[in-house]
Amino acid sequence: MSGYSFFQRASRAFNDYPHLPKVLVLFTVSGGGLAAVYADAGQNDVKKKKVVVLGTGWAGTSFLKNLKDPSYSVQVVSPRNYFAFTPLLPSVTCGTVEARSIVEPIRNIVKKKKFDADFKEAECYKIDTVNKKVHCKTTQQSHLGGGTEEFTVDYDYLVIAMGARANTFNTPGVVENAHFLKEVEDAQRIRRNVIDCFERASIPSISEEERRRILHFVVVGGGPAGVEFAAELHDFVKEDLAKLYPALKQYARITLLEAGDHILNMFDKRITAFAEEKFARDGIQLKTGSMVVKVSDREISTKERSTGQTVTIPFGMCVWSTGIGTRPVIMDFMKQIGQINRRVLATDEWLRVEGCSDIYALGDCATINQRKVMEDIGIIFSKADKDNSGTLRAEDFKEVIHDICERYPQVDLYLKKRQLNNFNALLKSSEEDAEINIEKFKSLLAEVDSQMKNLPATAQVAAQQGSYLADCFNRMEICEANPEGPLRFRGTGRHRFHPFRYRHLGQFAPLGGEQTAAQLPGDWVSIGHSTQWLWYSVYASKLVSWRTRVLVVSDWIRRFTFGRDSSRI
C-alpha cells in the first residue's frame, strides 16, 4: 500500500471518529519514507451526558451496576453510602445475621465502573426541572464542624430511586413510640431494644404486671415483613433468650395485629392458612380485624372490627410494618410537575416521569401509569384500517397485533383470563369471519382494562426496573437510529425501546422454626423445611457481591453452631 493511500485512510478514520483523542502518529511507507498524521491530543469534541442517580437502594444500585456505556458521566447522591439487602433486615433484628454482612459500600460499586462515576453522601431536598439541577445538603454529623453544606448538581438525565418511608396513616403516637423496619439502623435499634426489655425485666424490683408488659412485643402489620419479624423474634426468644433468661421465658409474649381478615394476603390461601396455624401452635397471638388508632409509650389502642370497641394493649416494644408512604421531597416534586392528589410518582411504561422527558423514576417512589386500551381504541382501529373502509376482518390486524399486546399488557392478561390463545381468537369469538366495525371492536375490548394492576412495591420489582433502565441507557444511540419498540399509536414511527415488563420470579415468607413458604410462578406452592433451604440458596445468590455472600453464609453457620448473639452492641 502506498504512503499516500495509507495517509488517506488514517485521515478518514480520524474524521469518522472525531470523539477519539487525537495524537501524532508516525509510520514508514514504501521506499523508506516517513509519513505523519497529527490531531489535537487535548480536546474531546463529544460532551458526556450527565446522569444523576438519587438513591442507593435496589433500583438505584441495580441501575448503577448494569450501566456500561462510557458516554455518560454518573453522579450518585444518597444519604447512605451503602446498599442494604433489605429482605434480610428481620434477620438483623435478632442477630441471625450481622448488619455489616448485608451491606455493600456504594463506593465499592462505583470504583469498578469503567466510566466517569462518583458518589456524594448527601440528601436531595429539591429538584429544579427548569434549570435541570438537583439541590442537596450534607448529612454528616454536625460535630465535624462547618454545619450543613448545600450544593447543586447539574443533570442531563435524572434517575429518581429514593424509595419510600414507612406509612403511619397519620396514626397518633406512631412516630414517637413505635419502631420501623425500613433501614439497617432500624433493625439495629430493634435488636438493642429487645435486649433492653429482657435486661430491665430481670431487675428484681420490677412487679409481675410490669414484667409482663415489658416482655410483650407487638408487631403491627400482617404483610411479609411483619410476619417474618414476628417469626424471627419468636425463634430468638425461644431458642436463645429463654436459655439466658430462664426465669423470664414464661412472661415473653408476641402479638401480631392485622387490620384485614388474614395475614399474608398477597400469598396463596394455602400459605396464609398454614402461617396462621403455625403461629397459633407457636404461641404467637394473631389478632385480625384490629385497626390501630393510637400508640403511646406504654400502650397501643386498637378498634376491633367485630365489636366496634376500642381495646388497649400494654407493650414493651412495638414494631410498625404497615406499608410505605411518599417522601417529602417526592411530594414537593409531584406538586411542581402537576401530579397532585397522587400517592407516588406516575411514570409511563418506559419509567419516564409523566410530563418530564429527561427524568426517570423507579422503585417504591413511583408507579407505572399504564395507558388504557379504551383511551386509544379509535386510533388502534384506524392503524389497522389502512384502506379507511370503516370495517376490518381479523386478518387486517396481523400487522398490529404484536404491537397492541406489547403496548397494552392488559390485553394478554385478558386473553389468559378468557382462555384464548391469541388476539385473533378474541376477534373471532363473537362472529366467525365477520367484519368488525369500530363499535364492535369497542365492545370486544370493553373489559380489557379491568385487568390493569399496579406492580407491588418490592425489591424484585425495583431491581428489574433498574436493570431495564440501564439497558435502555446503554443502547440509547442505537435505538435512536433504529427504534425497536411498539408502534406509536398516537404518532408516527415506533417507540425507541420495548416497554418495561415485570417478570415475577416468586416470593418467600419465612415462618420460623426453619420453615418457609414459597409461591413460585405457575401457581407452585411449597411449605416446610426443604423450602427453607431453597430460601437460603436464593437469598445467598441474590446478594450483591461475593463479599456479602461469604459474610451472610458464615453468619448462618455461626448461628447454627453457637446460637444468636445477645450482646447489646
From TrEMBL:
GO molecular-function term, one example from the UniProt record: calcium ion binding
Chief site of localization: mitochondrion
UniProt key word Membrane: yes
Domain of life: Eukaryota
Keyword tags: Calcium, FAD, Flavoprotein, Membrane, Metal-binding, Mitochondrion, Mitochondrion inner membrane, NAD, NADP, Oxidoreductase, Peroxisome, Transit peptide
Catalytic activity: a ubiquinone + NADH + H(+) = a ubiquinol + NAD(+); a quinone + NADH + H(+) = a quinol + NAD(+)
Topology versus the membrane: Peripheral membrane protein
Official protein name in the record: External alternative NAD(P)H-ubiquinone oxidoreductase B1, mitochondrial
Protein EC: 1.6.5.9
Organism listed in the record: Nicotiana attenuata (Coyote tobacco)
Family: Belongs to the NADH dehydrogenase family.
Every EF-hand domain range: 372-407
Keyword check for Membrane: yes
